[in-house]
Design a protein that fits this description.
The complex is a heterodimer of chains A (516) and B (239). With 516 residues, chain A is mainly β. Chain A is built from two helices and 38 strands. Chain A has a domain of 157 residues: Sandwich (Jelly Rolls), CATH 2.60.120.260. In chain A, strands 2, 31, 32, 34, 35 and 37 form a six-stranded antiparallel beta sheet that branches. In chain A, a hairpin with a 3-residue loop joins strand 22 and strand 23. Chain B has two domains: 132 residues; 97 residues, no CATH class. In chain B, helix 2 packs across helix 4. Classes of the chains: A mainly beta (516), B alpha+beta (239). The interface between A and B is medium-sized, with 25 and 20 residues.
């Protein structure tokens, strides 16, 4: 007897010697602390469409101390203020930019940088979108890829002044003044007297900076290239700030590959490996720091992703282009893979130039918003009843590890599920030795309607609406259905698949075979 | 009860259909494909065995042939298994006023008794079994007159293959009991730990078999004829 439940995620390491709770491939299933069920992910909801129906490449939010919230949406060449229903054009931007924002709460503004430095650094005060005042003599346009606020200063990394590229430069604003920078005075300059002056630092290995992130009490920069490294900011003021080596051999790739996930920083290094910064600095480049071990095939040779940390649902989301790799933080440290992959048949295909964890414009609920190339803005954690964007069913799959089979005439089993929404559970069996595939379809019942079972039936015993039958209020009633699949062989791969707009919940599947 | 109903009864009896499982509505359901196939085989095998051993009332059917001048061989109905009775005959003419029996010894004897039997035409008085690929008979003499009808009774094919095929029993009680017999065969076929050879020693199987035979009896057996022949209830009623 083998019982399959579904507490683990995708594990590509091995298709035999992994837990039967894991999946060797799969998509669109949800994981979580204590969860052992096969459930689909939430659908994403279409929230709105930008007026110009152009590519969404920036989503920003300013919340003042008085809780006045404004949300900006970069779509094509326009930057809109968006209240959840109405788009108001507040300025023009470069259509190719990939914007990110940094809160400067001291003056209740946000500063907006561009990962590809096509658009000068912007700031938004809730009313006006303008180029950031920088105070650098002789410079008109000031560009920056990365920004953080650290020790009372705005820190901008990988900068360009007009046409002069300084990818290895980090500029620090004057203390508590986001609008004053200096690209000629290095930290420790002999002219500094107060320690509050603006200054700059170069990456110690003079390589371009491809990431800047705060981790614990430190500000970390990453340099790119074949031998990219990490450096940590140390010092107290403009007279002695400096970079010190943090980790050599990080080799981070991409423009946007660092994410702080609360207790750790994840980044993607060459080869497509997702590294844990905490483990890296503790142990070095060993298996322990490789957070992507279970999904090495999926991530192989990945050159960067758009990464979002959904703090509400404790997921790290890697937007890979046509799918989203999801790391469920609650499963880190367990014996089970913490990964699922979100895919969609919807035209948006999860291809996005902007994905951000932020509040919904019209509520205080925090969620993950992302845009597509047609100006549509979606809530990844949607509640729609008609699938992705209200139009497209969600195809959830789990392929179970190899299990032993027999040469009996067929394979019998039983599905234990909850009555949620009607849908068909398709199970395919790939038989060893016989080299053929057979399939079955089990119609999972919903929670409404009359229950015409073989035993208790309306009008015969327990009458409808009174006991077992009509309504089954609230759903989630435990139910079982059997199956007997034809086929035989020394072993069998079993894949579960449900393509539906409805919610479903499968507790476990029981088969007489033994795990291989 | 039709074949589909019998398969459902077998699957319910053996706890294949339980919980949220619905009764199957056709044989195309792949959810229970493995057990459906086995249940069909169990029922067909039981039915074939029963039909082979006992003349079921349901098997009796009437047919006819009509003579064609100078035609020796006549094909019997497609569901023809064998003639009814131990010394079968055909009714001559529409009013059944006379009978035509088999040539004693069949064709093998006939060819020795009249070596011109393949060409001799005249008044047909006997039939003989024609050994070929379909069930057919030859007439002797070869009819010289057309359009004469001969009726006969025969045991028809009662095998079931489609879900809508009706089991060859006269009432639901007999059908249910037969399905219960088939259920036990299904149990032995499905369970690899059971030896199918033990089926006829299975109490459930033999009880259902005995019950079916008693149900099919047109009248009560003699109540003095052996205690074991009557059910416990009958014994109580008859003492």
């Amino acid at each position: 007897m083998t019982i399959f439940d579904f507490g683990g995620g995708i594990n590509e390491i091995n298709d035999i010697a992994i837990s039967p709770k894991e999946a060797i491939t799969g998509q669109n299933f949800e994981l979580g602390l204590g969860n052992t069920k096969f459930k689909r992910r939430a659908p994403f909801d279409l929230l709105d469409t930008a007026t110009n129906s152009s590519n969404i490449h920036g989503l920003h939010q300013l919340i003042t101390r008085a809780d006045v919230k404004t949300t900006l949406v970069a779509a094509g060449t326009d930057m809109y203020k968006w209240d959840g229903a109405i788009f108001t054009d507040v300025g023009n931007v470069d259509a190719d930019s990939e914007f990110h924002d940094i809160d400067w709460d001291l003056d209740e503004t946000i500063v907006i940088v561009d990962r590809i430095k096509e658009n000068p650094v912007l700031e938004w005060d809730g009313t006006t979108l303008a180029a950031l005042t920088h105070g650098i003599g002789g410079v008109t346009n000031f560009y920056a890829k990365y920004g953080e606020v650290m020790n009372g200063r705005m820190v901008l990394a990988n900068v360009t002044t007009d046409a002069i590229e300084n990818p290895h430069m980090v500029v620090f604003s004057a203390f508590e003044n986001r609008q004053l920078y200096d690209t000629s005075a290095r930290s420790g300059d002999s002219g500094f007297t107060t320690g509050l002056e603006a200054f700059y630092l170069l990456s110690p290995d003079l390589r371009p900076i491809n990431g800047m992130v705060q981790f614990k009490r430190s500000l970390i920069i990453s340099t790119s290239g074949r031998e990219g490294r990490l450096f940590e900011l140390v010092g107290d003021d403009s007279t002695n700030y400096r970079w010190e080596p943090y980790y050599a051999g990080s080799n981070a790739v991409g423009n946007d590959s660092f994410i702080n996930s609360g207790d750790d920083v994840f980044y993607i290094r060459n080869g497509g490996v997702i590294e844990s910064l905490r483990a890296t600095v503790t142990y070095g480049d060993v298996g322990t720091d490789d957070a992507s071990l279970p999904v090495r095939n999926t991530m192989k040779n990945n050159t960067g992703a758009r990464i979002v940390y959904d703090q509400t649902n404790r997921k790290v989301l890697f937007f890979l282009g046509s799918s989203v790799l999801v790391l469920f933080k609650d499963l880190i440290g367990s014996d089970l893979s913490p990964y699922s992959i979100y895919k969609t048949a919807h035209v948006s295909s999860f291809q996005t130039s902007a994905a951000v964890y932020m509040e919904l414009p019209d509520s205080t609920d925090k969620t993950v918003l992302f845009g597509d190339s047609l100006g549509n803005i979606y809530n990844l954690n949607g509640e729609g009843l008609a699938g992705d964007s209200g139009t497209t069913s969600i195809n959830a799959k789990r392929k179970l590890p190899l299990q032993g089979a027999s040469y009996q005439q067929f394979l019998e089993g039983r599905v234990f599920y909850r009555r949620k929404g009607e849908c068909d559970l398709n199970i395919s069996f790939e038989w060893g030795d016989e080299k053929n595939t057979t399939g079955i379809t089990i119609p999972l019942k919903g929670f409404s309607g009359v229950d015409n079972t073989n035993y208790w039936n309306s009008g015969l015993y327990w009458r409808n609406a009174e006991y077992w039958s009509e309504g089954l209020s609230g759903g989630g009633i435990p139910a079982t259905q059997g199956f007997s699949a034809i086929g035989k062989g020394s072993s069998v791969f079993v894949e579960l698949q449900i393509d539906t707009v409805n919610e479903f919940e499968i507790d476990l599947i029981e088969t007489p075979g033994e795990a291989a | 009860m039709n074949f589909l109903g019998a398969v459902n009864r077998v699957l319910v009896n053996d706890f294949i259909l339980k919980g949220d499982d619905d009764l199957i509505t056709d044989f195309n359901s792949n959810q229970h494909e493995g057990t459906i196939r086995l249940a069909k085989n169990a029922i067909q095998r039981e039915l074939n065995a029963l039909a082979a051993h006992f003349p079921l009332d349901y098997e009796k059917k009437s047919g006819s042939i009509t003579t064609v001048a100078s035609q020796r061989i006549y094909t019997l109905p497609s569901d023809f298994i064998r003639f009814l009775g131990s010394r079968p005959f055909l009714y001559r003419d529409n009013d059944h006023s006379d009978r035509m029996f088999e040539w004693h010894g069949g064709e093998d004897q006939l060819r020795r008794d009249d070596w011109k039997y393949l060409t001799t035409e005249g008044e047909e008085n006997w039939w003989y079994w024609d050994q070929t690929t379909v069930k057919s008979i030859g007439l002797y003499n070869i009819p010289d007159t057309a359009s004469k009808q001969y009726d006969f009774d025969y045991e028809r094919n009662v095998s079931v293959s489609n879900g809508t095929d009706v089991l060859p029993f006269q009432n639901e009680t007999e059908s249910e009991t037969f399905a219960d017999m088939a259920s036990r065969r299904f149990t032995y076929m499905r369970d690899p730990d059971r030896d199918l050879a033990d089926l006829e020693k299975d109490n459930e199987y033999t009880t259902s078999f005995g019950t079916l035979l008693k149900l099919m009896q047109p009248k009560n057996p003699n109540n003095r004829y052996g205690r074991a022949y009557r059910s416990a209830d009958s014994q109580v009623l008859n003492t």
